[in-house]
Write a structure and sequence with these properties.
It is built from nine helices and seven strands. The chain is α+β, with helices and mostly antiparallel strands and 285 residues long.
């Protein structure tokens, strides 16, 4: 228990003692902090409430807020119990079902973790993509792009502009060097497909028609009060078009793994049932 937490608890305990809210009897070595009807909140209930390193003032606030929240919840719970009929609060069956589902989930998760083959080949991914191609029509515009953001007072900015606008051999290599060494943020990998909306978080293009912008722009320079932006669009795909396989590879990998998981669990459950039937481990009356 941290010193700050101890201090906060001592202050809260002192306050409650002064106001006469702490009973004289309770668990040995533990101190009650609050009471609602015949239920008590003890010091031990708050051990993990305050993170290590929290200041005394913040610790007091966190402890007091927790106590206040506990009191409010217990008050409404006490009222609810008094006003509901016994049959309204019989949750034994639901609690047992929930507990059982958690146990089964934990067991199956352990088995999957230990036994599931997680290697998915490129051939499997490509086959799934081709067999389900219509399911992968794009819901967003995607692009391949080179982009960078420079501070407006960057000394090399004029040279960057010259290389960016140039189509001469070697200009691209020089541009990459300046991106690496002087840009505040950059991407020079134009082989990776990304959602256009993700790109707009780095390059603040303002357009009311994203599709028209992508069709009509290859290289773009923008400037605001602090930064100069460079954007070179290598390729794009629009909403409802079919994406390149590379854009969907990780998504398909997870789909295949999830299908394997479901198949493994289904087969495991069937095997348990068949074995139990052979061993007469259950009866139907």
């Amino acid at each position: 228990m941290t010193t700050c937490f101890k201090t906060a608890l001592l202050i809260c305990c002192a306050f409650l003692l002064i106001t006469g809210c702490i009973p004289r009897k309770g668990p040995v070595g533990d101190h009650p902090l609050a009471r609602v009807a015949d239920k008590y909140l003890y010091q031990s209930d708050l051990v993990n409430i305050v993170p290590k390193g929290t200041g005394v003032k913040d610790s007091m606030v966190m402890v007091q807020n927790y106590i206040d929240s506990w009191i409010r919840e217990e008050l409404i719970l006490d009222i609810a119990k008094k006003n509901l009929l016994p049959e309204d609060i019989r949750f034994e069956k639901q609690l047992e079902e929930y507990k059982n589902s958690l146990i089964i989930y934990e067991y199956e998760s352990k088995l999957v973790q230990q036994n599931l083959d997680t290697v998915v080949s490129d051939y499997e991914i490509e086959s799934y993509f081709n067999d389900n191609i219509e399911n992968f029509r794009l819901k967003t515009n995607i692009v391949r792009a080179v982009y960078a953001r420079f501070l407006n007072n960057e000394k090399s900015l004029n040279r960057v502009k010259r290389f960016f606008r140039s189509s001469t051999p070697g200009a691209s290599d020089s541009l990459e060097v300046y991106f690496i060494n002087h840009a505040e943020t950059y991407n020079f990998n134009d082989e990776k497909w990304i959602p256009f909306d993700d790109l707009l978080r780095f390059v603040p293009v303002e357009t009311n028609n994203k599709e028209a912008f992508l069709r009509n722009n290859k290289k773009v320079e923008l400037e605001d009060d602090h930064y100069h932006y460079f954007l070179s669009l290598t390729a794009y795909k629009l909403i409802d078009e079919l994406p390149p396989l590379g854009f969907e590879m990780e998504n398909i990998r997870q789909i295949i793994l999830n299908q394997r998981k479901l198949k493994y669990i289904r087969n495991m459950r069937e095997e348990i049932f068949s074995t139990a039937m052979q061993n007469n481990d259950f009866e139907i009356y």
